[in-house]
Input
Amino acid sequence: MTTIKSLFDELPPDRRRRLTDIAVEVSLPRATRLFEEGRRADRFWIIRSGQVALDQHVPGRRAAIVETLGRDELLGWSWLFPPYLWHLGAETVGPVEAVEFDAGAVRDLCDSDPVLGRAVYRYVAKTVADRLHGTRTRLLDLYGPQGSGLDP
Output
């Protein structure tokens, strides 16, 4: 996987300020439930420190952790795509420091500023593509011929 860059690193410098003006620094204690699968996606975060586990509902069992996110990673992308519902659940593994954004305010910014919007959409698309690649690699490790999920 490539080096992790924060959303802020990907924005043109003159547009970064517009996004940081609506950002809110948050401190989240361990075991904080941030969102639930199928509920309205109205916020997202950039993790500054700590880890957040993403989980998926499994009928008749506890939710299964499918990925753990950490420093400088985007937490949440469902807010950008209608119908704006979470595809997974999320819970802090330990204390987390993060930057929180109101999804509607960011969507409005993206609509009003095409340069900022293009940068945000590209960043989110790259994040989704990287996570899909990671998921496929893990599936190969589990179900493919021995060693098939390893990068050359």
The longest strand covers residues 43-49. Residues 111 and 117 are 6 Å apart (CA to CA).
